[in-house]
Amino acid sequence: MTILLTEAEIGRAAALLRAGELVAFPTETVYGLGGDATSDQAVAAIFAAKGRPRFNPLIVHLFKAEQAENLARVDGRAALLMQRFWPGPLSLVLRRAPHCRVSLLASAGLDTIALRVPAHPLAQELLRLTALPIAAPSANRSGRVSPTTADHVMSELGGGIAAVLDGGPCRVGVESTVLDLTRPRPVLLRPGGVAPEELEALLGPL
Ligand code: AMP
Ligand code: MG
Fold it and tell me: Does 105 contact ligand 1 (Cβ within 6 A)?
């Protein structure tokens, strides 16, 4: 059965995530469907709850940029972007670190991983309390509109998840920008909350 957790119950939401359960939570972009990214089972449950094809990799959410170093190869270009845009709506696709403990399922079997530090205070607190990398795609059934309220999450995923952390409506409502840094030139994979011009000002043409 689904529990609708409010801000006061953030500790419980973190405990559920640490126990391998799925918890939806607000970010500054849209609501994410979170699960322990280091657990094959939790990541598999995310794909199942969304009806998402397993070839579509997930973005892994971190509490602070320093966590990225154990999970991915962070070159100078990536470090610069993290410094400038994290926390914020920018997801970076990087090569996985040799001993990356994130489930390969989250990377859809690829040698790459998408990372982001969200700016929303509830998301940050939840990530800090769980102290785990959290895989979190948008909390909607695959192919449908991304949710910006807890009610919207409930009507999309209701039965399939343990809880929704209700933080009110999301401010941005558009997804994070996804930037691929695994090639010599950065490639914009998805437009989103950070404008391409802002990235180009730092990186040159995408
Ligand atoms: P969603 O989780 O629904 O917001 O979508 C995440 C987006 O990030 C999708 O478009 C994915 O294809 C993209 N993405 C996540 N991880 C990777 C990766 N390792 N390589 C390329 N794209 C990725
Ligand atoms: Mg989505």
Answer: no
